[in-house]
């Protein structure tokens, strides 16, 4: 019985731990606690959240690892400014999606403008047969989803296309960056595709990227990627799903 009890604790602790990490992280991102603010003492947080002090302590350590909190003798646990946060962390991206969505959309758009045209240019130089095959398959999946009822699977296919483009650049860091920010990209695509006509309008831009990469035309590939992102930014601005909040300075 004792060993079974230990197994149950191991099985359920991560869920409780993540729940507390999520709650504290959302409060930080959402501005419940501002930079420099002290967190309530462990006993108070544990009582409020219905968990042990140990769970709270481990959750605080998790947020420290993400650059969001700092623990110092005599001053306790305090919130760090956003410039210290790891904004590529998947949890931080999720919390920003929930509590600072306008800022996340802005940051995602700017990152795409910096990265994707260069990735497309590199892909036109470096893409191999397998890279081209995956790009074509992803584009075909987008076209099929666009024609399906409710456009089911379109965003997933769009994400796969952009993963394939970064991979085709031949730069492993770009591939890793794309995977790291996929939550932010998915959020951006979900917002932009809510604009009427956006899905149909985006397909020619994706086709232009594939044609340019296949033709080994780096300038055309970069220009097509830039045009696609700029169109997406306009669609986001017009989208009924666009957050009403003014983008903040955090980011």
Give me the secondary-structure topology.
Layout: H1 2-29, H2 42-49, H3 53-65, E1 69-72, E2 76-79, H4 90-99, H5 101-126, H6 129-147, H7 154-168, H8 172-180, H9 182-192, H10 198-214, H11 218-238
Antiparallel strand pairs: 1-2
**Which oligomeric form is depicted?**
single chain
Structural class: mainly alpha
Report Rg.
22 Å
Q: Strand content of the residues, in percent?
A: under 5%
Distance separating the two termini: 50 Å
CATH topology category name of the largest domain: Four Helix Bundle (Hemerythrin (Met), subunit A)
> Helicity, in percent?
over 70%
Instruction: List low-confidence stretches.
Output: 1-13, 245-251
Strand tally: 2
Mean pLDDT: 89
Number of helical segments? 11
**What sort of overall outline do the alpha carbons produce when their principal axes are compared?**
elongated
Order of helices and strands: HHHEEHHHHHHHH
Write up what this structure looks like:
- The chain is mainly alpha-helical and about 250 residues long.
- The protein has two domains: about 15-85, Arc Repressor Mutant, subunit A (Orthogonal Bundle), CATH 1.10.10.10; about 90-240, GntR ligand-binding domain-like (Four Helix Bundle (Hemerythrin (Met), subunit A)), CATH 1.20.120.
- Helices cover about 70% and strands about 5% of the residues.
- The chain has eleven helices and two strands; from the N terminus they run H-H-H-E-E-H-H-H-H-H-H-H-H.
- The chain has helices at about 1-30, 40-50, 55-65, 90-100, 100-125, 130-145, 155-170, 170-180, 180-190, 200-215, 220-240, and strands at about 70, 75-80.
- Strands 1-2 form a two-stranded antiparallel sheet.
- A hairpin with a 3-residue loop joins strand 1 (about 70) and strand 2.
- Helix 2 packs across helix 3 (about 55-65), helix 5 (about 100-125) packs parallel to helix 10 (about 200-215) and helix 6 (about 130-145) packs antiparallel against helix 10.
- It is elongated, with a radius of gyration of 22 Å.
- Mean pLDDT is about 90; it is low at about 1-15 and about 245-250.
């Amino acid at each position: 019985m004792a060993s079974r009890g230990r197994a149950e604790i191991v099985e359920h602790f991560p869920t409780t731990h993540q729940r507390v990490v999520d709650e504290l992280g959302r409060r930080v991102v959402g501005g419940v606690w501002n930079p420099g603010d002290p967190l309530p003492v462990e006993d108070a947080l544990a009582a409020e959240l219905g968990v042990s002090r140990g769970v709270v302590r481990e959750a605080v350590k998790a947020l420290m690892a993400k650059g969001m909190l700092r623990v110092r003798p005599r001053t306790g646990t305090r919130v760090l400014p956003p410039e210290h946060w790891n904004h590529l962390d998947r949890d931080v991206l999720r919390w920003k999606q929930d509590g600072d969505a306008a800022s996340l959309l802005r940051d995602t758009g700017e990152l795409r403008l910096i990265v994707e045209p260069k990735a497309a240019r590199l892909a036109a130089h470096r893409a191999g047969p397998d890279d081209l095959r995956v790009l074509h398959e992803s584009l075909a999946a987008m076209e099929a989803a666009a024609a399906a009822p409710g456009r089911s699977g379109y965003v997933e296919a769009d994400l796969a296309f952009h993963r394939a483009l970064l991979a085709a650049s031949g730069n492993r860091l770009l591939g890793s960056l794309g995977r790291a920010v996929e939550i932010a990209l998915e959020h951006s695509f979900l917002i932009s595709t809510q604009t009427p006509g956006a899905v149909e309008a985006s397909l020619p831009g994706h086709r232009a990227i594939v044609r340019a990469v296949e033709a080994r035309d780096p300038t055309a590939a970069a220009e097509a990627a830039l045009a696609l992102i700029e169109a997406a930014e306009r669609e986001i601005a017009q989208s009924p799903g666009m957050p009403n909040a003014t983008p903040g300075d955090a980011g």
